[in-house]
Amino acid sequence: MLFRSRGFVVSLSGGADSAAVATLSALAFRMAHQELGSEALRRKLRYFALPTDYRLEDLLKQAIACVYQSTRYSSSTTLNAACDVARGIGADMALRTLEKNLLARGGVLHRATEVSDLIQVNGRCVGVRARQGGAEKIFRARAVVLADGGYQANPALLKKHISPAPQALKQRNVKTGVGDGLRMAQAVGAALSPLDAFYGHVLSRDAMHNDRLWPYPQLDELAAAGMVVNQRGQRVGDEGMGGVYITNIMARQPDPLGLSVVFDDAIWQGPGRAAGIPPNATLVEHGGTLFKADTLAGLAAKLQVDAAGLEATVREYNAALAAGKLTDLQPARTATRRKPLPVATAPFYGAPACAGITYTMGGIRINANAQVLREAGGVIAGLYAAGASTGGLEGGPRSEEHTSELQSLAYLVCRLLLEKK
């Protein structure tokens, strides 16, 4: 893994688990340096372009970037703890480095500050209204950037746009994105893209109460090769479109927690071992439920799924696959993105599943310069948006993800700096 990687980006929360991951990542490089020697390791890591006289400390700073991942329960104590870990292993603390650069250029960073409204003058955004330390404050600015990361942790918006049962979705995120940027932009007349898609993955249903089962292992590869069925034993969507798509379909079901991934032994031993953190055997090792039976009827009983329905679904699916007529199924099954495999080799497996949501895809419409578009036409001067707050780059009927929030934000910052000059 080390020699095929360009390094590691490690999230640090200030807790023991993330600190252990960061420390082990640094230890991997240290052990490689010790066992291979400086020159041999440099040749192995030639894509790092290390000088011949490089120091181990220089390698660690280049190879490991730590990012502080806060939650609503975070504090200055957890931030300082995360920074101490990064310094201790010799890694670069990305956000702290960015903050230092910001301050060196004359910028100011306000923590524990909640923005409530945008301020407009003659149709131009000129600042924000916020609360800081219990008091209302006004911040004037030449430009305002909305980059608060979607609305995935807002139950009301999720119920309106994503799922009839938002409480049945596993929040595969830090629960800080509640759609404040979306709300504020809409209040000043911003145009919005459709808000009915999200980025996420198929997870074990036990992830709802077992933190060892999220964000990994994902069940995407099992679902894409096999099928996702409801309690009637019927398929609910086109598994061939991949994990993100089928996760969206799962979230839209009347009972998102009444679904199971069904597959056979060939899929379990093949695609089940293919992912970076494969469900075979991580799912069971981490406490996830996996039912196994010699017959589909026996599996249905364990899953509490209608046996006749499941047997009919598998029979029709296998026949369509053999005849090359998967698109005749209801719902149709495609094979261009993910290869379908027969569910025919005993023993048969079933994993109770849930939809894990990472971030929402729809949001504020922007142009090529990241300027927020006005619903009535034109742009809202002085207002920009980036990342998962925006819409139009991702989502759509196939729930596709296309871009990186960081790249979008970096592009925006470059534009603002150029405009300032």
Describe the structure.
- The longest helix has 21 residues.
- It is globular, with a radius of gyration of 24 Å.
- A hairpin with a 2-residue loop joins β4 and β5.
- The chain contains 14 helices and 17 strands.
- The strands form five sheets. Strands 8, 9, 10, 11, 12 and 13 form a six-stranded mixed sheet that branches. The protein has a three-stranded parallel sheet with strand order 1-2-3.
- α1 packs parallel to α4.
- By secondary structure, the chain is of the alpha/beta class.
Which helices and strands appear, and what pairs or packs with what?
Blueprint: E1 8-12, H1 16-36, H2 38-44, H3 56-63, E2 64-68, H4 76-89, E3 92-93, H5 94-104, E4 113-121, E5 124-132, E6 135-140, E7 144-146, H6 155-161, E8 170-171, H7 180-187, E9 198-204, H8 220-225, E10 227-229, H9 243-251, E11 259-264, H10 265-269, H11 279-285, E12 291-293, H12 296-303, H13 307-323, E13 348-360, E14 364-365, E15 371-373, E16 379-385, E17 390-391, H14 405-420
